[in-house]
Amino acid sequence: MGKKKEEEEKVEIVDIPVTRYETKDMLCELVWIKEKLRWCCYNFTTKKCVFKNSIDKEDIGEDGKVVRYRYIPDPFLYPFILEKKLFLPEMPEDYGSEEELTEEIMNFVGKYVDYPEKFYKIDPLFVRMTWIYDKFEAVPYRAAYSPFRQYGIGKSRWGFVVGAISYRGYVLGSNATPAVLFRLTNSIRGVPIIDESEFNPKTETGQALMQILNGGYSKSTGVVIRCEGPNNIPTLYVSYSPKLVATRRYFPDESTNSRTFFHHARETERKIPEQLPPEFYEESKKLRNKLLQWRFEHYKRNYNLNEIDLRDKIRNSRIREIMLPLYAIANNDEERQYLIEISKLKEKEEISKKQDTDEATIIRAFYSLFNENPERKGISLGQLREKAIKLDSSFSKSARKIGDILRRVFNGVEIKRMYIKELNSNPFAIELNKENLEKFGEAAVAYCIEPRDIEPQPEEEEEQEEEVDIEELIEPEQPENSEEEKESPEKEEEVDIEELIEKAEDNSEEQLNGGTKEDRITRLRMKYEGWNYGGVEI
Q: What class has domain 356-453?
């Protein structure tokens, strides 16, 4: 006994708080068991688990003294677990078959959330994927959003329910400071539940969230580097992981939108609990236990995604990239076919968003003018703007702004002053040379527009407004005079304009309702005589 104590005194103990630990033969996962954070270490050879308070490694220090490094679960996680802001399993449990696990996940989510049925099958696949996401180079996001920025329609509930059974799901509040956001994503390395975030780029938190989201889908780009401390030491924070987002709008960055599977949240049509009952937490823990066992069994599998060729099924390369992890873990052909269908819906959505932009309207306007007269030498920016407005009445870009877009977005389309025959002037215009036509062709492909399908727009004849005689409008219709009256000289009588206005109210097709008599006279003259009133000429 004395000898053992003497040996222990020679050992220096160093505690190292960590949230993950892995060796070639063993994978250790954090579990919450008996109100304590512990390690559940799975041996890939024996296929058995051992629970540990710490993982010990010994080394010899420079002074010859033995140093024992103890890798302990990071204690900063305790308040998050106790407040149900971080969801961990308790112990591995048998999950039966893949089909049984999928059905159990689907039933659990459907019990507490109501949303479009076509997305019911994607969440079980997404949840399973989160438990081995670290085996993939890129992963998708999932999001619920309200088209009309509504609240109270289940976005937050969906995120919380799905997050409760995802790998290390944790609540990442949008009111957290940037420092907290970066440290949590780096330390937990799980699935953040980002709720009701507006992603305002004018705020520090909004900028931090977008930094985490924009690159966090990929291992290669999923890092944020910031200068920390008084010496401004560059510090790296890992942001790579799948993410769950409840939001009132699409993300500001289109590339992030294209890597996210959205569903439109809606008012519930089923009777579901208004508040989550206590059994929700027990049911979610049981599912997490089964998914932990699923992670241990699938972690060493070889997911060679390069062998999966989806190019003939999914044209969009970004959608193919994020679909591959889900496709790789699909159980059967039915699930794989479902993923292809969801991807095609996503493709249509992305094409629709591209074609609804000002850039797409400019492309359509260009080809409409070009197809009207392919022999023309150039198209002025003014002509392009007029045609764009005819194609889309909401188009509001000026000719100068169109020029900026052509130079900046369309790979530097050349704009110069040149003679336009139909205008008989030398405005700023696009010369229809080979180089510019090639650049517009590239832009058409990028915005999913087929130039040959754009028909020339016929010139609309401007309707000439019929001139209205104010005197005829004011003067009531008179009966035809007899011959004697026609022969007699007409007497010019002074007419009271106010009296005529009162009579005109019953006879005129242009009714002027409301206001005083003076107001009605003024409005009538503004309308038909071109009076300038309040700085505005009617």
A: mainly alpha
